[in-house]
Amino acid sequence: MAIAGAIIGAAVGGWLNDRFGRRLTILLADFLFFAGSAFMATAPNPAALIMGRVFVGLGVGMASMTCPLYISETSPANIRGALVSTNSFLITGGQFLSYLINLAFTKAPGTWRWMLGIAGLPALLQFTLMLLLPESPRWLYRKGREAEAKSIIEKIYRPEEVEGEIMALKESVENEVIEIEAAQSIKLTELVKTKAIRRGLTAGVGLQVFQQFIGINTVMYYSPTIVQLAGFASNQTALLLSLATAGLNALGSIASIYFADRSGRKKLLIFSLSGVIVSLAVLSAVFQGTTTHSPPVSLVESNGFGGLMCEDYAAGRASATWDCTRCLKMQSCGFCSSSSNKLLPGACLISNTTAGNKCRAYGRQWYTRGCPSKNGWLALIGLALYIMFFSLGMGTVPWVVNSEIYPLRYRGICGGIAATSNWISNLVVSQSFLSLTQAIGIGWTFFIFGVVSILGLLFVIIYVPETKGMPIEDIEKRLEKRAIQIKFWGNKGRSSDPSNKA
Questions:
Q1: 201 and 113 belong to one structural domain
Q2: What GO MF terms are annotated (predicted)?
Q3: What does each C-alpha distance from 112 to 97, 218, 282, 453 come to in angstroms?
Q4: pTM (whole model) above 0.70
């Protein structure tokens, strides 16, 4: 429900940005965050909890496309990539903190109410601080509030840069006025017919879709499950290891801040996707080996628990062929490992609290998702590499590119389209992940993500332009000249040769 709300929030966020400004849209998102958290913490029934999730989702959708846009429009070109990447780092840092908070509240009374309700505090803090910040100077200039825009630009840029920035902004707005006189309102046909917009949307939307379809949010949403699928049975162990993955995500985002304005957006994307492909290959191979070499089920071991033997296993007369993987495929079954060695034959029992507690009482490990494996640590290494490579480029650069690739007049609506595509893709992948793992196994699921990553790499090489250090107005000119953007080196921003078609 939160993701569904985010889709709506991102869709209306573009209109809100263009009509009321970036600052007011962020304030509205903060209000929705706070209201949603309050609804969830005090929910008397599931309907109220769902309503709170929708409110939070609406705020997430608005903020996801507005914050990078606001940062981009209030940043000098030479540090714009680093500052937008910082936004992504703080998101991943927030995810890390949320795991810590969840861990802290696991023993508290009213566990989940505290977990969900405390999210209102940072929303309240940001709302208060946002009241002290100015509106985007680019939005103000476009609305005819030139004096306000100029005073803000003077605070952002060095004195010798102010005049050039104002002239570039003035030229951009004057070009828009000419377009508006020719067409009184933005029409969807304009987005398709205008070369720069169409090519910018292709790159921007494509990056957002690939960001989700290579599987990152399945890893973040279901990392405790994935850790258990790798053979780590304990819920607490799974949560602690998930905390580590969230920390690696934050570390990768820090590296992205450093490299975004040094190596360039496109190079960073290519390096990131190349690492993701290798990591997914490792994950696919390890999980495939785990499912094909899982411990056998022993009839003697299963009988040792009296009436707790799984009915599906008891009814299957070909029980000698059963192993842990087949046991867990039956939704009603759980696997209790051998007391001497978890890789030896174990018991297939009813998947309930009684059987789980009895299994652990005998000093055994209780599995309901993944099976014991001697190579589980390889899966953790693959998972760690995947997160680090992803967060270095694909986690942050799509938002950087989408914050700077569209002309000012279209920035709100195009950013909204791109953010909406991101959240729709997020919903599709997150809702299908567990079903895929049940149907074809987690090894093949990661293999599919790997194939999509290869397609994403080819897409980046062909369609995504390098925007490092370029004033936003010059990016539009580059898109007008060339549809295929295979060249990704030698960009020098505003001082580059205007005839350069890269």
A1: yes
A2: myo-inositol:proton symporter activity
A3: 16, 21, 35, 35
A4: no
